């Protein structure tokens, strides 16, 4: 299996096997637009399940419990504050966390005593805390500021590095796509948004941009001097770059997602609600979406922007015209044979597009001079 995967990767790199990712970019645009709209729909209709760090309130943690059922905690809070609807979650295998809106000092004491009695633990096993919403608001503001600064620096650095603002624009659009879909999926699942969640959202931006830069670097390498030849178009060279980095993108994504999925499983099913679960879900979804966008969205967007340039547009037409002329000549020489035969006679693959780097066997090897 490993040998087959290696051969598949080699075929992608040499051009013997190629997936028309750039050629079918309209399909991927439609998928991206639909996913972004669905994510916006979830955010507008369902919204976030904000944690206590953002909405504020009182929190009780009951430790060393023998029974982790949540109903005793709900009943204990209802006895003190009938109008209160507590949020009860299990933390690990021996703790219960209860969150309410802000309670008075007397109500906090009464709820603590009621929880201790409900779970048959001492008062020392019940910890209380009050968290104000201003702390969460401050975290949100700093996260937004950090996001704006990050996107600005990414745009400037990529423009300078690639000497092309179109690659920077395509990368930023892909980042926006990754962030919105990750946030939408998180909101749809309904887990609480905590500071750890915000950290996860910001972390995936760095992962996504790294994967995109690697692909763009190969695109730049393949398209260097593109206007000096007439064998392939800019889109075809860019598509080859995506195929050449496809195996690398898959390997990197799998290696990154495996430990994150393990953390997600441990945080969600073994330890219960907590920081690990919140950050792992954001990372897992964001990395998966980022891997998709770096392959199927970023480079196709860059090609779409580049093809608006007059020089690239004229070069593409020149290549296609020359290719059509070769097909016409082959048609005359083959006496009206099938189109595939005509393309083969003209040296063009049946897809109608030359694949840069396609394998030519011994024909690609230099001939030895006799006597040496």
UniProtKB/TrEMBL annotation:
<dbReference type="InterPro" id="IPR048634">
    <property type="entry name" value="SecD_SecF_C"/>
</dbReference>
<dbReference type="Pfam" id="PF02355">
    <property type="entry name" value="SecD_SecF_C"/>
</dbReference>
<feature type="transmembrane region" description="Helical">
    <location>
        <begin position="28"/>
        <end position="48"/>
    </location>
</feature>
<keyword id="KW-0811">Translocation</keyword>
<comment type="similarity">
    <text>Belongs to the SecD/SecF family. SecF subfamily.</text>
</comment>
<comment type="subunit">
    <text>Forms a complex with SecD. Part of the essential Sec protein translocation apparatus which comprises SecA, SecYEG and auxiliary proteins SecDF. Other proteins may also be involved.</text>
</comment>
<keyword id="KW-0813">Transport</keyword>
<keyword id="KW-0472">Membrane</keyword>
<feature type="transmembrane region" description="Helical">
    <location>
        <begin position="195"/>
        <end position="216"/>
    </location>
</feature>
<feature type="region of interest" description="Disordered">
    <location>
        <begin position="350"/>
        <end position="372"/>
    </location>
</feature>
<protein>
    <recommendedName>
        <fullName>Protein-export membrane protein SecF</fullName>
    </recommendedName>
</protein>
<dbReference type="InterPro" id="IPR055344">
    <property type="entry name" value="SecD_SecF_C_bact"/>
</dbReference>
<keyword id="KW-0812">Transmembrane</keyword>
<dbReference type="Pfam" id="PF07549">
    <property type="entry name" value="Sec_GG"/>
</dbReference>
<dbReference type="InterPro" id="IPR022813">
    <property type="entry name" value="SecD/SecF_arch_bac"/>
</dbReference>
<keyword id="KW-1003">Cell membrane</keyword>
<feature type="transmembrane region" description="Helical">
    <location>
        <begin position="279"/>
        <end position="298"/>
    </location>
</feature>
<keyword id="KW-1133">Transmembrane helix</keyword>
<keyword id="KW-0653">Protein transport</keyword>
<dbReference type="InterPro" id="IPR022646">
    <property type="entry name" value="SecD/SecF_CS"/>
</dbReference>
<comment type="function">
    <text>Part of the Sec protein translocase complex. Interacts with the SecYEG preprotein conducting channel. SecDF uses the proton motive force (PMF) to complete protein translocation after the ATP-dependent function of SecA.</text>
</comment>
<dbReference type="InterPro" id="IPR022645">
    <property type="entry name" value="SecD/SecF_bac"/>
</dbReference>
<feature type="transmembrane region" description="Helical">
    <location>
        <begin position="143"/>
        <end position="162"/>
    </location>
</feature>
<feature type="transmembrane region" description="Helical">
    <location>
        <begin position="254"/>
        <end position="273"/>
    </location>
</feature>
<feature type="transmembrane region" description="Helical">
    <location>
        <begin position="169"/>
        <end position="189"/>
    </location>
</feature>
<feature type="domain" description="Protein export membrane protein SecD/SecF C-terminal">
    <location>
        <begin position="123"/>
        <end position="307"/>
    </location>
</feature>
<dbReference type="InterPro" id="IPR005665">
    <property type="entry name" value="SecF_bac"/>
</dbReference>
